[in-house]
# Entry
Amino acid sequence: MLLTVENLDVTFSTGDGPLHAVRGISFELDHGQTLGVVGESGSGKSVSTQAMVGLAAGAQVTGRALLLGRDLLTMTPAELSAVRGPQIGMVFQDPLSSLHPQFRIGWQIAEAIHKHERSSAKNVRARVIKLLDEVGIPDPDKRIDDYPHQFSGGMRQRVMIALALALRPALLVADEPTTALDVTVQAQLLDLMQDLQQKHGTAILMITHDLGVVAGVADDVITMYGGRIVERGTRAEVLGRPHHPYTKGLLGSVPRGGSQRTILQSIPGQPLSLLIDEPGCPFAPRCAFVQDSCWERFPVEQLISPTQKSNCVLPADFAGPVVLPVITASDSEVKKSDETLARISDARVEFDGARKGLFGIKRNKITAVDGVTLDIRAGETLGIVGESGSGKSTLARALTGLIPLSGGIIEFEGENISTFSAAQRHALRRDVQMVFQDPFGSLNQQRRVGSIIADPLIIHKIADGKKLRTRVQELMELVGLNPEHYNRFPAEFSGGQRQRIGIARALALKPKLIVCDEPVSALDVSIQAQILNLLSSLQSELRLTYVFIAHDLAVVEHIAARVAVMYQGKIVETGLVEQIYGAPTHEYTRSLLAAAPHLDDVTAGVAAPQNTTSEGVR
Amino acid sequence: MMPESTLSSGTEADLDNDIPAKKGHPHKEIVARSPLQLVWTRLRQDPTAMVSAAVIVLVIISALAAPLIASWVGHGPDEQFRKEGLTPSGLPTGPSQEFPLGADNLGRDLFVRLIYGGQLSLIVAFVATVGALGIGTLVGMTAGFMRGKVDTVLTWLMDTTLSLPQLLFAISLVSLVGPSFGTTVIVIILFSWAPIARVVRGQTLSIREREFVEAARSLGASNWRIMRVDVLPNLIVPILVYGTLLIPQAIVFEATLSFLGLGVLPPTATWGNMLAAASTGSMYTVAWWMLVFPSAALLSVTLAFNLLGDSVRDALDPRQTLFARKRRIRKNGLAS
# Structure
């Protein structure tokens, strides 16, 4: 066995008392295997591995972590540093902050080699070039002398992998290695990691929140919640026939191919606080099948199959595929309306780029949106999909009038908004609202939630005094927040609740069109499903029109009826979801769809034929 | 259009509050503490901050109680005691039962004058700091938020002010309008607002790009409203920190001006003109107390304000001192 972790326990001391981040976990990883550790934020998945390699500063770590028979936890800092590199390689989420901006990448990789081996500079340079070639950097003999900022995000992550694998470690710890990257790049990197694994027999500990990534690469899967391992088994078992209600909940939360007319099974409630040391099952407060004994102690591991184990008291035959209920035709009375609410014709948005010329008077123009034409029909959800830099967020801001157009026309209810007077533009805000991506950044931390939601009502002089408070509380209730919490600060809410606050603020003016700019991409999957369900139910209740911008194809497929695919500032393809996902005509759409992680392949492989989710359009 | 009815079935399960309570199980709730509470907790754990605060509170109390102290001692601040305070040869007497900190060259009680001087120093410092913070914040926020030509003009104004030779300029200004309490405050404000404006402008530049400002714009908020409601509250931390560090600067500036005879005029006691009295005719060679006690007062108060300012900044922004805290944790050990 390469890595054996026994009873690993990690505690941090905070101003609010001890934070018990990891609560006695044990697992094993053999040579050449990939172990996927899945969990949401706060599950302890990252902390446990950081503590293992001595990178969790200020943590109190107990238990054992044997790497090739030597306990990592009892090593001195010097011994640990001798292990990190030759025996354990690490790749982190953000390749920009993991590489030093002031040094050439070749030098950084060479430094890692020099630290552990005596070798001539010439030999090392040749080795670095070979490594860069191996991770797929074109022209490695030239690029070796480039700085990190000269590489794209995906290329930087390749450099990080080269750095991690420079000394051929037996174990590669990859902590959310592809989370910051676009799907097409993610797919390439996962392929690369698998190739290198086969070539060198490296074991990979893959920590991720993305079930699709795990479905693509892992041999075995561990699900973590609240600092504990709740289920483990082979990939096919855990993803195809999950037993633990949390694993089931996670799988039911993820939008996937063919989930368009399904109700996502979001897990109710919020992630628990690790400051509370509950003796029972951490998932009990959110579990639909909770029993009295769950509160008293954490259930012992139960054998579901020879390889699958679950820490749940439910009978073993509870294990089974996750089936999403399908909305029947009567529920989903999709109002087929041909009435056009807004029309974008040949819209262009240009930004000033770098200065050029002798005095910097001339400037380069950067075209973010390049001749986009789109119709938005009343009552529909139009999805806009694209990778980073495709101009989709810029288009959203132009549509809401936050950025002026450089060319073209945007019409709202038949009127050209570019020619609006200041008063007309002010009035337009009532009809067009926006939900932002970052639930942390889009709310002013210094203000109380009630006053944030009341903002639009005050600005547009709609309500004041007692009426204002009543209206704010109505809005909070509408989005599923406790109306009594209007006096709290945003910091006291979790990410999902904050996104609800943002939605309540957008709804305050009873707008006709809401532009959602990546509203769920910063949220955990179970919370993401809550927000998606909320948006759907609000739409049918309030007859809203959504423009839903996202990079996640499955999310858009779930919520939108029509999709526009955006690439380099242009719309390359528009059509009904079934057309685009079923029979894409543009090459870029095809490559996007091919790169997206396919959860269905695994779940369908094991699931019984009645699994409706696998009968997707793909 | 906006029905008040409960949500449809799709989200009913999502109502995320008090789910454990439903199960009838006691579930401890973590009570989130307000930002101010957190700051206060951190400050209380910082001995430097507590000692500095104690010194400052003591000085403030004695300044407030100055008339009481004077009547208790029985000496007015400007009252001259030529018999008791001066030796027959005309030199001031040293610390004694009658004059706890000695007398000055005119036979006045140094202790009472020191307390009255402290009162004046604090008033000048507070008024000047509030004035400088007000002007600096307004100018900096406007420059940072409006950008463009407004920014260019205001930044140019800041740079000009910063490049003026402070003391020379102050001397010529005072000789034009004549020294007084008002002039002192105005001179201090004149030379203190620009650095604040710079700090505030920098912060505003980054705040205005934050998503919540964009959100406010999308709601139709006016520039003035965004500056007031969204930008200003986020500037409180730098303003508060800069303010605490500005007070000692103002105290020293006031003392300097008074020392040069350009500040508040005698006989009104200030620490500056008390020091000036000690140095005229090298009085301190025969009466050390005239130099030592005002200097000690000036030093301890400015030091206390500076240290408190540092601690306040650490408490308000613990991220900057993460390294220091980690070191402390490692040193003291977690298990303890």
